[in-house]
Specification:
Strand content: 35-45%
Radius of gyration: 22 Å
Oligomer: single chain
Number of strands: 12
Order of helices and strands: HHHEEEEEEHHEEEEEE
Largest sheet: 12 strands, mixed
Structural class: alpha+beta
Distance between the termini: 39 Å
């Protein structure tokens, strides 16, 4: 199956080069100008590796995301929420995430020494001493305080490590559009989640859209992110990663999740 799909991927590339009409190949050929060196077709695996290796090598970047995600209702229905998010990253130990959504608005600051979570509309904030690296702080805030930074894998030292660990097959789905622009479209099949990725057709492809399908949950809800304004040489002001409370801001304490009496659905 996987071998066949890789052949299908190669066939799609041939189609994209205008070689999908065999009768044309059978006609006598006229003298032709010196052939240009063709760009070697890339398999779905190679495209994924190109994107992952490129992101892994970027130390500083910023990116914006438009997000939608499904929520299952108790009566079996499903609704969709929206959000947008901006990330500023300086590896290995600086992160700023500004998230504005239907269900919450939060800013996360990490400067290598402390992390702060701010709810700007409610004027609440809380901060703690932080681990030394982005990988450590992301694991720490999620495990101890239940704080998840959306699309946080992008800022990890190996952005695709968790994804590749879960994926069992990679399929080239075709050339499909995002915001009216044709992209490489990959489907990654996993044990508990499936992923779709749309990549630009540049020599160095960039991630433009991603969908995560939680196929083991009722109604298989999806999380979608459309990426824009990638900047791999950003001029980030030095105070971007430091939170300075205003006189109106109110400091509150984080409560570890093991101290909370949560129901299974929370």
């Amino acid at each position: 199956m996987r071998y066949f799909l890789r052949l299908l991927a190669l066939a799609s590339f041939w189609v994209s080069l205008g070689l999908d009409h065999p009768q044309l190949l059978a006609q006598p050929s006229a003298p032709s100008p010196p052939a240009e060196t063709p760009t070697a077709p890339r398999t779905a695996d190679q495209l994924l590796d190109q994107v992952c290796d490129f992101l892994k090598g970027q130390k500083n970047f910023s990116v914006e995301m438009d997000i939608t995600y499904d929520d299952n209702l108790e009566d079996g229905g499903k609704i969709q929420y929206s959000a947008y998010q901006t990330l500023f990253v300086e590896k290995p130990n600086h992160l700023r995430s500004d998230y504005v959504g239907d269900e919450r608005t939060t800013n996360f600051y990490y400067n290598g020494l402390t992390f702060t979570l701010q709810e700007p509309n409610l004027k609440y904030y809380s901060f703690k001493t932080a681990p030394k690296t982005l990988d450590e702080v992301l694991d720490h805030v999620e495990a101890k305080y239940g704080v998840t930074i959306p699309m946080s894998n992008l800022v990890a030292s190996d952005p695709c490590a968790d994804l590749k660990a879960n994926v069992t097959d990679i399929i080239f789905a075709g050339m499909d559009m995002v915001n009216r622009e044709e992209m490489y479209h990959l489907l990654l099949l996993g044990s508990t989640r499936d992923y779709q990725m749309w990549l630009t057709q540049d020599e160095q492809p960039l991630l433009r859209k991603a969908i995560i399908t939680y196929k083991n949950l009722p109604n298989s809800p999806q999380y979608t992110a459309i990426f824009s304004t990638w900047n791999f040489n950003p001029d980030i002001p030095v105070n971007t990663f430091n939170f300075s409370p205003s006189p109106d801001d109110i400091k509150i304490d984080f409560i570890p999740t093991d101290k909370l009496k949560l129901t299974p659905n929370n």
